[in-house]
């Protein structure tokens, strides 16, 4: 504040735990990416030679920039407890790009090379859209209530992060439960591990050793992992521009998936920046959205097919007391690991059940933040904003026959899950405004809900005019209800004002 130069350390001990948290978070996503793409029929040359290196370039660029931003904020505010924003691939967006963009492209072309080029083009376009959306970032942050933003984010954290990773933890019960206990002891109980080894590193070592000792993993996993070791250069590619031709012709329908998920990604960045602001580190949301968009485009220029975002792990890193070193280390290590095939090797050698518990902690820290940083009167708004992601999680993970079963369970599950981020924010904002008796603003957000439903951003499987008319009508009725109470409220205020005027005139006389 006073312009005094502070010594903001490049690296400190707490960065080690935060590094493992962020690295494992990205590693867990890349394990899913690799397994899914290989299962779809994409050759290893594309998966490990293009997709993984491209994503690593994006991660490197973003992490280095956010480390720089942390230093800039530390110098500006004259303090050294600033934590750099975590950066990586959004889990929900990853699933959408896998099953909503890449798989349809491969199904329609039956050509893995061409499908990859189309997916790269989609990622590049997504980054460009997010850069454009960033100009409205500050306005959106100012006008959307904090309980709505943090509540919607907590819904993602509870389902796709904490919930999903707890399931993965229990796939190896003896190992997973022990590793989870180590993580909780270290991060929540603040208990030191033997020889002061960082909790996450200790958990990985113990969990991996137990997996081999108990026969959950074998020498075959090591052999398989090492077979992927090699040199995968980080080379630029024009695939994005080749794929753009197909994206805007025969596969233009993919834009209906691309536009809303990109807006969601921008909102997720905004939410995560907001979460860090309430923890004391206030970054420029517009700048962050632009950086995420630029990082996505850079990754696409090197073969990556997934948008990047300010990551949900930011708050967990803050809780760990991290600075900027973990961000720098994550970017450098990730780039090196991608270049030499080490990510593929580690993904095979380290069980997911060992990685997952640390992500459980990241998820529950985000849910905790949503409640801790809002007044108790806003808890209902936080809670209702979380709920759409339960439906979204079911939709994402249950397809085919299972999807039919879900539909039979309740016809409301699928439309609630469509556009869950938008639905969560609208419902959360309406509830927050009702709490404060701001009925006019509640009516405005109801109208926003009607518009988004009309266009298909909420409660619909695709963008089109009159996509969800029943839901649109419901929000319009809701807007009418709130408008009635707003007008009644205004009339009451006017009456009170008129009642005070005679008494004031009497005082003057």
From TrEMBL:
The chain crosses the membrane at residues 20-40, 46-66, 87-108, 114-136, 148-166, 172-189, 201-223, 243-267, 328-347, 353-371, 378-396, 416-435, 442-460, 466-487. The keyword Signal does not apply. This is NCS2 family permease. Keywords: Membrane, Transmembrane, Transmembrane helix. PANTHER family: SLC26A_SULP TRANSPORTER DOMAIN-CONTAINING PROTEIN, SLR0360 PROTEIN. The keyword Cell membrane does not apply. It comes from Thalassorhabdus alkalitolerans.
